[in-house]
Amino acid sequence: MDLPVKIFNKVAEDLKPMDRILLRQVSPSLQSFCDKLGPKFKKIELIMKANLNGFVLGKEEIEYKPLENGYVMSCNGVNAILKDGDWLDGMWNGLMACFNSENPKYAQRISPELIFNVKSVHFMCTYLEDGPQLLLPLLQPGYLENIEMRCSDDNVTYEKLAKTEQWKLAKTVRTDAGKPLKPDQLQYFRHLDQFDIKMDDLTLDELIALMRVS
User: Which residue stretches, if any, does this entry annotate as coiled coil (predicted)?
Assistant: First the structure.
């Protein structure tokens, strides 16, 4: 890099998300350089589906689609084909490029050593195993405040999520995942400042119990 460091820093910080992600993949030195930049965003929406995965950063929706030999990354109609790579590695590189990490290290796979500083997360997935249960442990507990989930699985349970420090230390949870909750599942939400959930019809006794939780 022939440009003065301060100028290069300014250029890199002003890059659009997809450009910063691609810059980080050029070389180990640029990877290290990008990891030292400030966070590009504080809110992320994660999309985890069968044939389409990615995340939304502000107005930028970045999608990853696996190919037979590599994957394609798309954003606002612009495609970048990366050969001999795995889409999950690419998605992790994207997260690393746009968020501060407690341990800035390239992730070959999902690694508990990677922690992303994110205030709000919005999961859109088919199964909790595809989104929240997979990715929530990678977000900094205590720093993460708001969790939103949209899930089409009718057999959603919150027991595993409720055991994570991220869930325990969150302030708000909004979910329309699965079937309406039973009153006994309110135990997973009682610690929150605010929650928005679907519930079955309540009896008077259950309503009184809910008021006690609130």
Answer: none
Can you read off the two tokens belonging to residue 200? 């079955």
Separation between Cα atoms, residue 138 and residue 117, nearest integer Å: 9
Closest residue by Cα to residue 175 from 141, 49, 167 = 167
Question: How much is the average pLDDT of 98-104?
Answer: 52
Helix (H, G, I), strand (E, B) or coil at 130: helix
Give percent of the chain with pLDDT exceeding 70. 73
| pLDDT at 20 > cutoff 70 | yes
Task: Return the number of other C-beta atoms located less than 10 Å from residue 212's C-beta.
Answer: 9
Nearest CA among 101, 106, 77 for reference residue 91: 106
Q: How many CB atoms lie within 10 A of CB 68?
A: 5
| 63-71: average pLDDT | 86
Rounded CA separation 141/138 (Å): 9
> Which strands, in side-by-side order, build the sheet including 146-151?
78-82, 70-75, 60-67, 53-57, 43-48, 120-125, 146-151, 172-175, 194-196
Residues 6+ apart with CB under 8 A from 94: 17, 21, 55, 62, 64, 73
User: Taking the domains of the chain in order of start, what are their residue ranges?
Assistant: 1-114, 118-214
Whether 193 shows a pLDDT value over 70: the answer reads yes
